[in-house]
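lol forgot to send this yesterday, sorry. struct tokens for the thing we talked abt
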């Protein structure tokens, strides 16, 4: 797991009692509603060794009075039982925020609004009386090192964490006309309001090669525009101009949903309610007459392969660390690159 930033990743373990009570989906919904991105849900039949590693700190604590019985309690609670795993993505500090969300170990001491406070039906006192582990539904990683260990425990040491899942990530390019008209915030707000998580906003001064790579299809199909010099059009529209780029995260299918949201490439044909339909002020006819590109505010990646290429074009291949999916409530932090 070298190279994975576990400051931004946490493992969610929905325990056997959560599965038995049919609460797994509700727990993960509460995590999502708190602003975290939840992915990679997986159902597992727990093996004894996995539970032993998960509770290693308790098992190795020689000061515990119930040390003699603890291994039996753990085996009774977990071995051969179904659990559900998921990954939560956010910014550094995710582990402490998730621990607050799940609440106190003893459900009777967990406050309202926490997962254990709202959903649990057990108590530490009853568990001790019945000689078993307390049933408190869910565990999340304590810290980055805990997340690293728990990922290997539950997902398997041979399974590489996919930090660049372009099925769930689209690149949003706010074009020079959006920047010039002061519409970047409006465009990104519309995308966020549609359910995408926006992060890693950057301002870029466009280099010619970036416009050429981004519009490679126009350059290759230049015969379709016999009256226009496409390379010159691209340079005039983009080279040395300011654009704003951001990443939009969501579930698989995000690319199609965002393409519907931005609307037809000709703003005069874009439906009301789309970004280009509501905010565009240009037309394909005017662009053809003036032998230039149409000003249509925004681009989003067509599909996962395009998102991969768009990321390399606008962020640079060496900035892959940005691809860790963020918490939905992370504020935009603009930076400038040239």
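and heres what i got for the seq, position by position
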């Amino acid at each position: 797991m070298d190279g994975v930033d576990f400051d931004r990743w946490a493992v969610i373990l929905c325990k056997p009692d959560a599965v038995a009570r049919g609460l797994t989906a509700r727990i993960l919904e509460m995590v999502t509603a708190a602003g975290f991105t939840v992915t990679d849900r997986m159902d597992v039949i727990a093996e004894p060794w996995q539970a032993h590693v998960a509770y290693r700190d308790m098992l190795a604590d020689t000061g515990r009075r119930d040390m003699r019985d603890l291994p039996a309690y753990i085996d009774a609670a977990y071995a051969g039982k179904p659990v559900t795993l998921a990954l939560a993505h956010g910014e550094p500090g995710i582990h402490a925020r998730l621990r607050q969300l799940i609440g106190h170990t003893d459900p009777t001491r967990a406050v309202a609004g926490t997962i254990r406070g709202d959903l649990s039906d057990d108590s530490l006192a009853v568990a001790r009386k019945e000689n078993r582990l307390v049933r408190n539904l869910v565990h999340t990683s304590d810290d980055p090192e805990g997340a690293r260990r728990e990922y290997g425990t539950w997902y398997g040491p041979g399974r590489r964490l996919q930090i660049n899942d372009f099925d769930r990530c689209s690149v949003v390019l706010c074009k020079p006309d959006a920047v010039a008209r002061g519409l970047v915030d409006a465009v990104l707000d519309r995308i966020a309001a549609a359910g995408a998580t926006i992060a890693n906003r950057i301002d870029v001064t466009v280099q010619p090669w970036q416009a050429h790579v981004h519009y490679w299809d126009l350059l290759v199909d230049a015969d379709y525009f016999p009256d226009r010099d496409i390379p010159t059009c691209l340079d005039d529209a983009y080279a040395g101009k300011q654009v704003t780029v951001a990443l939009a995260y969501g579930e698989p299918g995000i690319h199609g949903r965002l393409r519907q949201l931005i609307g037809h490439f000709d703003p005069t044909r874009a439906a009301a309610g789309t970004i280009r339909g509501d905010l565009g002020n240009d037309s394909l006819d005017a662009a053809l007459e003036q032998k230039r590109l149409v000003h249509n505010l925004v681009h989003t990646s067509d599909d996962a392969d395009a998102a991969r290429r768009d990321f390399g074009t606008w962020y640079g291949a060496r900035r892959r660390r940005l691809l860790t999916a963020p918490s939905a409530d992370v504020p935009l932090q603009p930076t400038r690159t040239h």
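Confidence is low (pLDDT under 50) at residues 320-338. anyway ping me if u want another try
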